[in-house]
Amino acid sequence: MGTHILSLPEGAAVDIRSLAARFPEGRDRIAFALRELEAYGYVERVRERTADGRVLTRTYGHHAPGVPEEARAVRAPQPPPVPPLPPGRETTPDDPCPPGPQPFQTCDGCERACRAREPGRCRDCRPGPASGEAVDGPAVAA
């Protein structure tokens, strides 16, 4: 509903009756949604008195809750904080094994996915310590 309100042209009717005609939800759910959007700062409803004494409620939609227009244009998104390294693990810019899981690679022997720093064969297709040769696929128990 907030997206719909923001997509309306300036001066369009945004009240419970007009929104209930647009959406399948009833008036109670529309009123609750407007109150929730207002509580989080996405919608501002201001009551104004006209010259003839009537009271109007004007609804203003905001792209960012509770932030002035000037601040929205200047503020840039901040990157998430970097988690600390485990004790005893220091890293350098040229570290060959950065912390975290290795990327997925496709095994050259069996076409399965495995985690490795660089392309090659998975642990099932690598040469064993006794044989000295690589097998053409994963080891299968006989």
Number of strands: 4
Strand content: 5-15%
The N- to C-terminal Cα distance equals 62 Å
Shape: elongated
Overall description:
The chain starts with a helix and ends in a 27-residue tail after the last strand. 23% of the residues lie in helices and 14% in strands. It has helices at 2-7, 16-22, 27-39, 69-74; strands spanning 43-49, 55-61, 104-106, 113-115. Helix 2 (16-22) crosses helix 3 (27-39). The protein has 4 helices and 4 strands, in the order H-H-H-E-E-H-E-E. It is elongated, with a radius of gyration of 30 Å. The chain has a two-stranded antiparallel ribbon. Strands 3-4 form a two-stranded antiparallel sheet. Among the domains are: 2-64; 100-126, no CATH class. Strand 1 and strand 2 (55-61) form a beta hairpin. The protein is of the alpha+beta class.
Please specify the SSE layout and strand pairing.
Elements: H1 2-7, H2 16-22, H3 27-39, E1 43-49, E2 55-61, H4 69-74, E3 104-106, E4 113-115
Antiparallel strand pairs: 1-2, 3-4
Write a concise synopsis of the structure shown.
The protein is α+β, with helices and mostly antiparallel strands and 142 residues long. The chain contains 4 helices and 4 strands, in the order H-H-H-E-E-H-E-E. Helix 2 crosses helix 3 (27-39).
